[in-house]
Amino acid sequence: MDSFFELCAIILTLPILWTLFLAGYIVCIPLFLLRWAFGKLTLILHPSWAGMLSDKDILFAEDPACPNPKPHSILLGYTTIEGNPTLAEIQERYLNDVILSKNSQTGKLNYPKFQQYYEYWFGYSFWKWEESFSIEKHIRLMEGTEDGKVVTEETLLSLLSPLANKPFKPKLSPWEYLYVPKYLPKDSTTPIGVLIKRIHHGIGDGYSILKSVVSYACGDTLDKLIPLARKSPSMTFAGKHNHQIAKYIMLTSNFVSTVNSLLTMPYYFIKHMATIDINAWFLPRSQLSRKCHLGITRKIPLHLVKQISRERGVSFSAILFSVAGGGVGRLFRKKYPDGVVKVPDVMQCFTPFPRPGHPNNKMVNHFTTALIKIFPGITSPVERLLKSEADLNNMKKSSFPISSHIMMSILAAFPVWYVRLIGANWFATTIVSNFPGPREYISYFRKYKISDMVFWTPHLNGSAGIGIGMLTYGESLRFALNVDSAILPTQKDVDDLCAYIEDELHSLLPPTNKSDENQNKISEKKKSIESRSSVSELRLRSVS
Fold first, then answer.
1. Share of the chain above pLDDT 90, in %
2. What pTM, to 2 d.p., does this model score?
């Protein structure tokens, strides 16, 4: 019934919404021309500049890396290193293997942004070269560890927390790697090294950073990374069999998908953007402190997640979003046991969504966005899991990611002050990043094994005060939480949330002696929940 009413709404609002959509795009044409003119003008007036920022980079460059007292778009993470390399060796190898690496065909630098910073000129963002690049300014010892003392996991997190919103130095490319020579993980008695990475999102996305590490810092092949976006099943079928009927299916499905996306794109975009979270953790950005507490779960074996996926018949991502929602719900009930503060039924997550063709050997922002829901109000782990699966399937078929991609490209035509105002997130409580890391262990400079990877998601521009990073590496998975202190005022709150997420995942493990009858009940429950969910009739080709 919900699907029928939604279809009626699409048909009735289609002419009005598309008229407004096209009118808005036409209005933007002079702005695109003005941006183009400023880009050409800088070639004459400022030939030493490196050029304008791309459309996706601009969305993050609205956040000044300096002198902004509390930047909100910093990608923060670390890798643990076995073998104790020296700081001098890390500096030398990164300089030669990454910073100065060149494309073998063009002879140009692969990563020029590592030597560039951005500034504003007449409201537009431009890359400028550092006057005197020095690797020692970007890769150095972590402050407070110069005396060689051993740093524990708790101490490391306390050192990292201020870095999530610490400004970069002026006139320098907004990135730095901080080395801790002696770090003692909880599960070890032997100190190892830690390389902390701090990179402003304006330089590139997390997948670009990961590729630079795998390809150049480690000298390994990218086939160790799982592709983020794949071709559609019809495309794969046609490629394998080369039958005329397969080609016909591919062309027909792509044509229908494109037409459906174009027709319903304005409706779904406005529908999602107009859905605003209402809960105790969704604060106006003026109330956020921009001081955070960081937390990480223990290593979660991937085979457990795969077992749940296989036994429950759901996707890998659905499990991760489901247990995140379960952990949030349990912390709500613990903090507010009297029920004065209501546990939210639904909480929205502003999430990067993969786009095919992510380029190699470049630092870029190459993605669109989606709004994924978590369900803290559902106490049953299985019911919540199936609800998450249905929601993810709906979003994959929705036209929202493609409309979001178009809107982000349109925003690039505007001056940075307008991007800062209009491009803010005013509807989602959390920012969630979920992508797979290398499926095998890799080694820095082919000799220092990377034993662990952790990645925190920034809060970005807007009202989100919670960042959840989900990164797999080797045979394990970690959740990394970045929570504003205005939402969770103590480190213990964040540690409890990490523990609840771990516990929620283990609660999904099916009993070894479950009967076929119980499995049938689960399948029936899944069908029931999916039938109640609003299913879009679109299929987005780039994320199918």
1. 47
2. 0.83
